[in-house]
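Quick log. Single chain, no ligands specified.
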Amino acid sequence: MNFFSLPKIDLHCHLDGSVRPQTIIDLAQIQSLSLPSNNVEVVRELMIAPETCSDLTEYLTRFDLPLQVMQTEHALERISYEVFEDAAKENVKYLEVRFAPLLHVTQGLTIQQIIAAVVKGMKRAERDYDIHGNYILCILRTMTKERINEVIEEGAKWLGNGVQAFDLAGAELPGFCHDFIEYTHYARSKGFHVTIHAGEQGDGQNVQDAVQLLHAERVGHGIHIINHNGGYAAVKNNRIGLETCPSSNVQTKAVNDLQSHPAKRFYEQGLAITINTDNRTVSNTTMTQEVQKVCELFSLSAEDYRIIYLNSVEQSFASHDVKNYLRQCIDE
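-> predicted structure:
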């Protein structure tokens, strides 16, 4: 297979984990911010997580530098545009990007300004390239809860116009879903789709709770259902999409190595797995690389890839028309 030319879909990509290193330098100069270095290779090293991370917490420290410059409308629009541009240039046809608006308020931006900026960047990329996209609004589970409903209410104004879903992300504690039932219920009442990070570091019970308590339609990662009958059954019986991110899972020690990743077993068992980048910069990867790794390591055929691609179409939060277009891309 020519992995570069294959049409691809990425449903799990974080904005602040996918910033170009040179863009960090450019924006820091514009904003008169001091960086540890203005050498692009040094900055790149500061942004890329090593494959020897002890856990997810260490991996998440690589987001600190990008967030310093992502506090203006100009920066958010530019970074949004560039993430979609980079994806489009490797034949990604549809991209869902997620980010936490509350991480971008330190210089006084309103949530509405923040969402408007990233959607503007995405729509500009859609005009310039053969790519479609949507945004997913995240709440970090370690944040105070007082502004969650504000994010939902402001985000609801963009539903169907660049924003489609609500997510819980960040450090994963056992039983976290019980603390967020009212918020995901409110998001769903406003019309949001729901995808939840679960079963990445925690056990499969978090996945079962995400589906049964929070009514998640997809699960970010979800790999630890492998040892949890309830989580596995919740995913399989409800046709819940699994947003697998192989390289990231190795870095965060969610799995010991790529060979032990359960993606192939899940695929063979008929689960709706999808292949995704998680963080293009922090994980130093692309969709082309992720697809190639999975297909070559697990000896997947072109038809296997087609099935996984169509899982991504089915599980995406794209419109009916965009889904039809995406199906045509793989058939061609």
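The radius of gyration is 18 Å.
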